Amino acid sequence: MKRILTFCLCISLILAGLVGCQNKKAEEVEPKQPLFSELNTSYGEHNLSFAVEDSVLTVSGKINESAYQYLIVILNDENDPSNVVKVKNDAFSTTVSLPEDEEEIVVDLYGGQDEYGSFESIMLDFVKLEKTKDGWALIESPVYEHNQSVFSVEKDKSQALNATEQIQSDDEEIKLLAESITAGISDDYQKAKEIHDWVATNIYYDYDALQSGQYGNMDAKNVLATKKGVCEGFANLMAAMLRSQNVPCRIQNGYALGVGTDREWNGTNTNSTESNHAWNEVFLDGRWIIIDATWDTKNKYQNGTFTQGNSIVETYFDATLEFFSLSHKLLD
User: Fold this and answer.
1) 75, 30 in Cβ contact below 8 A?
2) Which residue in 225, 143, 235, 241 sits closest to 192, CA to CA?
3) How would you write the chain as a 3-class SS string?
4) How many other C-beta atoms are found inside a 10 Å radius of the C-beta of residue 262?
5) Which terminus of the chain is more solvent-facing, meaning fewer CB atoms within 10 Å of its CB: N or C?
6) pLDDT digits (tens, 9 = 90+) for 285-325
């Protein structure tokens, strides 16, 4: 979901992030976390970088120009039109002066088609800065060290190739579709990118299922047939299509901040062992990469209607663990 922002008219808050169930209100906020000077969102081509030095924040990177012609950096919900930057050749860079009278800043990034039109949230509530005696610094996620421990556990690549009841990689329709999407591509990393893009473009997040709690059949075949699903369905279809092309892909369950949950880590959800979200880990070029196609789609199925987003984003394709941990906790 996303927040829509219109200059000089209104700010309408719609919670960002897509998860599969409701959770209880959380308790006190955890103590502040370790600090660092730069955050990259992805190891892939469309990486966003947040770098802070003294009292200046630099936000730069690559993003689909077809999705957003203009970007704006918002600090603590304060809208300053002077922070609008034009995307050129899928790239951008902008600097923002950090205020002297704040101790902590939430950095949000919005995108839009027109310089003075409506902007929707690309990154909302998760990137935070803290003022220290040495200047400003980015705050590390309180679940980052935990995620490092879980992510580093050796995974069975052969098991990540098997067809299962939910992941029907041996289904002829799934195999033919994956083959057509990746036709002429020999590099497995690019195959994964094309399949991610296809799923995020053609499958719709099922808000009706989320709101009713009636998720139905989320296996890969049914999600492909109905063109809709919640996170489990997106992950199953991604896994089925990649496995059909002999690319190891597994499902990772975890806890994600977003719809139906708190939007910051605290003393309750940092210790949660309850799963409310699922995504993929794919073995490519000798390493496991993180892909969350659910969080990269702009499509929604709501009130019985399919609504296609303008364009997908690639923020959660080959995401860095540092960035991913700002909103996701891996479960054992």
Assistant:
1) no
2) 241
3) CCCEEECCCEEECCCCCCCCCCCCCCCCECCCCCEECEEECECCCCCEEEEEECCEEEEEEECCCCCCCEEEEEECCECCHHHEEECECCEEEEEEECCCCCCEEEEEEEEECCCCCEEEEEEEEEEEEEEECCEEEEECCCCHHHHHHHHCCCCCCCHHHCCCCCCCCCCHHHHHHHHHHCCCCCCHHHHHHHHHHHHHHHCEEEHHHHHHCCCCCCCHHHHHHHCEECHHHHHHHHHHHHHHCCCCEEEEEEEECCCCCCCCCECCHHHCCCCCEEEEEEEECCEEEEECCHHHCCCEEECCEEECCCCCCCCCECECHHHHCCCEEECC
4) 17
5) C
6) 999 999 999 999 999 999 999 999 877 889 999 999 999 99
Q: What percent of the residues of the chain are helix, what percent strand, and what percent coil, each to the nearest 5? A: 25, 35, 45
Instruction: Decide if 320 contacts 288 (C-beta within 8 A).
Output: no
Residue 104 · residue 264 · CB < 8 Å: no
- pLDDT single digits (tens) 7-59: 332 323 233 444 443 333 334 334 456 688 999 999 999 999 999 998 999 99
For residues 260 and 28, what is the distance between their CA atoms, to the nearest angstrom?
18
Q: Is 3 exposed, middle or buried (0-12, 13-18, 19+ CB in 10 A)?
A: buried
Residue 163 · residue 170 · CB < 8 Å: yes
CB atoms within 10 A of CB 59: 24
> Half-sphere exposure (CA, 13 Å, Cβ side) for 229?
28
